[in-house]
């Protein structure tokens, strides 16, 4: 007789939910595509409402599953997108280094965060399209894309680990898994938490 299916073991130690916000056209979807699939497209297909991608990375020997939500920058989707702020552990505020208004609007996006996100949410400012300017990060060239996601994931992991230590029963940590059993996409980074 066939044995009952065994429950799959969690394929990660931490699940971290990130949110990408910023004006329409700054390159949020490209940034996510670059980080999750390693690709880039020059065509502009505006996000309708919300989309998400998953990538599992490794930090300090822990598997971190990043669930990254990509919001539509267009005003008409604001009701849908703001509903996702509350569940976010980290928010990437994206602007286009060649578009000053997208940078000026960051203050409005911060206001949205203050109104709709959790108080302790981690935030990082991302200047995209650096290939068109002398700046820091670009989805097109992959410049600093890995670094920005790893850096915010690292900060959040530390925050979660600290709250694990403070309140044992309320832990978000999942049992250590067998790496061979996983089928996620794992980055080979040993440490980025400065430890
Ligand atoms: P919404 O979904 O409407 O909020 O827009 P978005 O912020 O997701 O923008 P998207 O990623 O669709 O990119 C808009 C346009 O900018 C596309 O034509 C991309 O090819 C271009 N783009 C994105 N990132 C870069 C970059 O780093 N460099 C250059 N040169 N172009 C970029």
UniProtKB/TrEMBL annotation:
A GO molecular-function descriptor: GTPase activity
Superkingdom, taxonomy of origin: Eukaryota
Gene3D superfamilies: P-loop containing nucleotide triphosphate hydrolases
Intracellular or extracellular location(s): Cell membrane; Golgi apparatus membrane
GO cellular component: Golgi membrane; plasma membrane
InterPro entries, alphabetized: P-loop_NTPase (IPR027417), Small_GTP-bd (IPR005225), Small_GTPase (IPR001806), Small_GTPase_Rab (IPR050305)
Record CDD domains: Rab8_Rab10_Rab13_like (cd01867)
Pfam families: Ras (PF00071)
SMART domains: RAB, RAN, RAS, RHO
Lipoprotein listed as a keyword: yes
Topology versus the membrane: Lipid-anchor
Composition bias type Polar residues, residue spans: 173-195
Region ranges (Disordered): 172-195
Keyword entries, A-Z: Cell membrane, GTP-binding, Lipoprotein, Membrane, Nucleotide-binding, Prenylation
Family membership: Belongs to the small GTPase superfamily. Rab family.
Chain's role: Involved in membrane trafficking from the Golgi to the plasma membrane.
Assembly and oligomerization: Interacts with PI5K2.
PANTHER family in alphabetical order: LD44762P (PTHR47980)
Name of the protein in question: Ras-related protein RABE1c-like isoform X2
Source organism of this protein record: Durio zibethinus (Durian)
């Amino acid at each position: 007789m066939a044995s009952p299916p065994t429950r799959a073991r969690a394929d990660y130690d931490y699940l971290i939910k990130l949110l990408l916000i910023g004006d329409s056209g700054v390159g949020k979807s490209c940034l996510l595509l670059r980080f999750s699939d390693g690709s880039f497209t020059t065509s502009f297909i505006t996000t309708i409402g919300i989309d998400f991608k998953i990538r599992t990375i490794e930090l300090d020997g822990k598997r971190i599953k990043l669930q990254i939500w990509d919001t539509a920058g267009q005003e008409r989707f604001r009701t849908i997108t703001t509903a996702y702020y509350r569940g976010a552990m980290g928010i990437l505020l994206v602007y286009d280094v060649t578009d000053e208004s997208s940078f000026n609007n960051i203050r409005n996006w911060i206001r949205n965060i203050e109104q709709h996100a959790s108080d302790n949410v981690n935030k990082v400012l991302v200047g995209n399209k650096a290939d068109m300017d002398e700046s820091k990060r670009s989805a097109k060239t992959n410049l600093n894309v890995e670094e920005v996601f790893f850096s915010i994931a690292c900060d959040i992991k530390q925050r979660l680990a600290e709250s694990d230590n403070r309140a044992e029963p309320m832990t978000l940590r999942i049992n250590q898994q067998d790496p061979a059993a996983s089928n996620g996409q794992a980055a080979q980074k040993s440490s980025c938490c400065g430890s």
